[in-house]
Amino acid sequence: MFQKRKIISIIFASCCILVLATLGVFVAQRQAQKAVRKVSVSIDNEYNNYFISEREVKNILTNDGEKIIEGSKITDIDLKNLELRIKSHKFVREAQVYRDLAGNLNIKIKQNRPIARIVHDNSEEDVYIDDEGNLLPLSERFTARVIPITRSLFRPAQMQSFYQDSLGRAYLDLLKFIEKDAFWKAQLAEMQIDAKGKVIFMPQVGTQVIEFGKPDEVEQKFKKLLVVYKKVLPAMGWDRYKRVNLEFHDQIICE
Predict the structure, then answer these.
(1) Residue 159: its pLDDT value, please?
(2) Per-residue pLDDT tens for 4-46?
(3) Residues linked to residue 191 through DSSP beta bridges, in sequence order
(4) Where are the transmembrane segments (predicted)?
């Protein structure tokens, strides 16, 4: 009796699986025959960067209007190829292209995030650095509000790999710290790297040159600088000192 019930259960389960598989194939075939109703583009502007627009994305998808997407069958569209074309845009970090059950083509885009701009005498050589240490060209469409790095030792040809090695990552970590801190991002107007690799900041408020030194002990140095802004300058006067040196451990030198 038990054996008979077991056989019946196996047959029933097999029939259910077969029915579901048949339905799955049927639905897939129906979906494949559907035409694209509309193209929906979602661009992540979490950091208020607007390097790419919905219109530009649609131009990439359609080869500037040469290829029709809306109204085309899903089977006639190479989703992977569309995804790769969007990813080839210089300011796109991630892209997803997929269809939904309603027949819409959905595009989700995450942009690259510049955190600094390296400024040269020839502005055509200027580049952005993103939060992974990659170099990005400037955009005619949008200018990111990030800290400029001037008087840098590093020319464009040398910078391609600089922010990927251990020393370069230290500078990158410093830039990321500034980018994530709303106060320092607003307060620091310019960053310089001198011939010895030491960092100097020019502030938005005050005339002091901030001698930061090598890009180490970043959090501790900014804590010392905060003491200067909260206690020293309000008490002594904002124009009292011409330089603030944070290089030395447990010391703040104001002159």
Answers:
(1) 59
(2) 555 555 665 555 565 454 444 444 455 455 677 888 888 887 6
(3) 149, 201
(4) 7-28
Judge: domain 35-111, CATH 3.10.20.310.
yes
**Residues 18, 91: Cα–Cα separation, whole Å:** 47
In one-letter notation, the amino acid at residue 111 is Q
Q: How many helices (H) and strands (E) does the chain have?
A: 8, 12
Fold of 114-254: Rossmann fold (3.40.50)
Beta-bridge partners for 211: 200, 245
What residue segments make up the domains of the chain, in order of their start? 35-111, 114-254
> Order of strands across the sheet with 127-130?
135-136, 127-130, 114-118, 147-150, 188-193, 199-203, 209-213, 243-245, 253-254
Q: CA–CA separation, 26 vs 28, rounded Å?
A: 5
From residue 249, alpha-carbon distances to 93, 170, 172, 216, 239 in Å are 39, 18, 22, 11, 25
